[in-house]
Amino acid sequence: MRQVLNLAAIAAGVVMLLSPMAAAAQQASPTSPVAAASQVAAASQVATTAQVAATSQVAATSQVAAAAPATKSYVLGPEDVIEVAVLGRTDFTARAKIAADGTIQLPYLGTVRASNMTSEELRVQILGMLEKGGYFTKPILSLNIVSFASRYVTVLGSVVTPGLVPVDRPYRLSELLARVGGARSDSADYVVLRSGKEPERHVLIKTLATGDESQDPYVSPGDKIYVPTVELFYISGQIKAPGVYGLLTDMTLRMALSRGGGVTDAGSEHRIQLTRQGKRVGKMDLDQKIEPGDVIVVGERLF
Question: CA-CA distance, 8 to 167, in Å (whole number)?
C-alpha cells in the first residue's frame, strides 16, 4: 500500500513541465531575425520572472517534513527526544532530549548514555540500571522516540515542501520524494542524488515511478536530494505552437518540433535554424540533442 501511495505522489509531481506560452507568442518569419530575437527575449524574461516567483513562494513555505513512526532499527543520536515510563509508577516518567555529548538525564539514574544505540538497546540498559540500583523490582519499562532529529536527509529544489526529512530506517529515493510532496510542475524530469563520497547520480522521475527496485536507490542519513528547475528552449517560426518549453533529458530536435505541435504546412524540417549561446549552429540532424537555451526557428518551405 505504501508503494502505491508513493507512486501516486510522484506521478502528481510529474505533471509535464511548463504550459506552452503559445498565447503570448507570435509566429516569426525566418527572414525576420529581429522579430524572432524580440520574441525570445520577451519569453525569456517571462520565464525568469515566473521561476523567481515560484522559488520565493517555496522558500517562504518550506518546512521540515513530519517524522515517520519509530522503528527498532533507528539509531539514536544528539537532538533526538525520547520518553520513558515505568508502568504503574508516576515517579519515573520522563521526556529527555539527547545532548551533544550523547547523554540524557533521567530520574534516580542521573546521566545515562543514549547515543549510538537503538531504542530497544537503550530500554534494556535503563531497565538494568533501575534493577541494579534497587529502585524497582522487575519493572515494566516503556521507551518511545518522540522526535527524530539526529539522522535526516536534505531535500532541496523544485519539490512541494523542501527541507530536512528525518529518517528512521532505510528509505528508497521514491519514498523520500513522496514524503516532500513530489516534484513541482516547474521541475526538471530528473532527481540529483548526492551520497557521501559516491559519484553524483541523476535519476529520472519517470523511472522512479515505473521502474523496478534496482532503479530506485536507497537513501542514507546525510544524503542530499536535489530536484532542479526545468531548463528551457525556445521555438518559433513555422511551428504550430511557438513558445518556450521545458527541456527533457536527452531531448532531440525531432522531439522539440513535436513538443511545439509540429511543423506547419508552410514550414520545412530542412529549413531549421538553431542558435546556441548566441552562435548559429550548422546543419542540424533531427536526431541531434538540443541543449538548454537553444533557440529554434523553423523556416518556410521552398515551393
Answer: 21
Distance of CA 107 to the CA centre of its chain: 43
Q: Sheet containing 190-194: which strands, arranged edge to edge?
A: 163-166, 152-157, 224-227, 190-194, 201-204
Looking at domain 2-17+33-68+151-227, its CATH superfamily turns out to be Outer membrane lipoprotein wza domain like (3.10.560.10)
pLDDT digits (tens, 9 = 90+) for 188-244: 999 999 988 889 999 999 999 998 888 999 998 899 999 999 999 999 999 999 999
Question: Distance between the two ends of the chain, CA-based, in angstroms?
Answer: 60
Are the C-beta atoms of 155 and 176 separated by less than 8 Å?
yes
* Domain with residues 232-300, CATH architecture: Roll (3.10)
pTM beyond cutoff 0.85: no
pLDDT digits (tens, 9 = 90+) for 195-209: 888 899 999 999 999
Strand-strand pairing, 232-237 and 243-246? antiparallel
